[in-house]
Prior knowledge:
mainly alpha, 10 helices, 0% strand, membrane, transmembrane helix, peptidase activity
Amino acid sequence: MREHFRFYRHRWFKVWIAMAALSAALIAMTEAVGNRAVMPAAFFYGAAAGPVGLLVAIHDRTGIGASVPGVTLVGMFLFGGGVALLLGGYFDALFIPDKHGPSILQVGWIEESAKALPLLLVALTGRHLTKAAGVALGLSCATGFAIMESMSYAWKNVDHAGAVNAGMVLFMRGLATPFSHLAWTGLICAVAFGAWQARGRIVITFSVAGAFVAAAVLHSLNDGLLTLDIPGPVRLLFLVVAAVSYWLFYRATRDLVPGAAAGPAAVPGLASRPYAS
Length: 277
């Protein structure tokens, strides 16, 4: 318990506070001298502070960063997250015309499917088919998605309320996204890649389907509570959704420990039979 109260000593907190402070400093400079050229950097650091801080905390707890080559993780962050945002944005616009209506409850099913697709394509190659690698790749994809989505919200806000209010949007989303997008996709990957590693093949089990349904439902509940016209006290239930989301992710990854996550990135024999019907 004493160590929990000393969170300020941990690397994740130092990373989070440094990135958030840099974002705030860039926004302050923009307001002071009117140099809007630095706003993309301000938005990036603000959007990335929370997700990257959580990535550091998870790696320190599990060591999963050593399970996949760094260039692969960067590729999943850039292109997996980008493809997920492309698909999610398209189908969100197609099926959710009213962002403040009941159709918002479909968003979890759409966006979790969009984030899962790049990860499934990698899994089908038979490479990196271990639980540690799957969680690392899933978190990288979710981080890319969450950062770019947060930056888009900031850009929309800056046109209406100025750079300072856009910075506040980034700060609040930086607190929320680690316990939403990262937790949801991380949960799916922990259960799916864990099952695939144990079975030696890709197969949709009840546990894999259940993890996806849980993530999609929690995602939709989160967005519904934050956007639907409901009483203020009920809206605060999004904090419960965030807590449950991270608790499920933590339970699904508590068997991952530093050292055990490192090792071969592919399971022998999987490349020749990457999936099962």
